[in-house]
Design brief:
The chain is mainly alpha-helical. It has one domain. The chain contains 4 helices and no strands. Helix 3 crosses helix 4.
Length: 69
């Protein structure tokens, strides 16, 4: 696995762990934006990508009742 791919996977796990509470309820972009603005500051492209990743993660978690397979 390339280093960049490994880092992306680690980031996915961190997103899942850090935002499980948000994902348990309806995904609210404003809540996510507030949290992610602190993390990304002016990196809007990174912020938008992570929000899209969260939406994908939410679908996966709902499909598998919160367990990723």
């Amino acid at each position: 696995m390339k280093k960049a791919e490994k880092n992306c996977r680690i980031d996915e796990v961190n997103v899942i762990e850090n935002y499980t509470a948000i994902l348990d309820g309806p995904l609210n972009d404003d809540d996510v934006l507030d949290e992610m603005k602190k993390k990304y500051k002016s990196n809007i492209a990174g912020l938008k990508k992570e929000i899209n990743d969260l939406k994908t993660t939410e679908k996966i978690m709902r499909t598998y009742n919160g367990r990723l397979k």
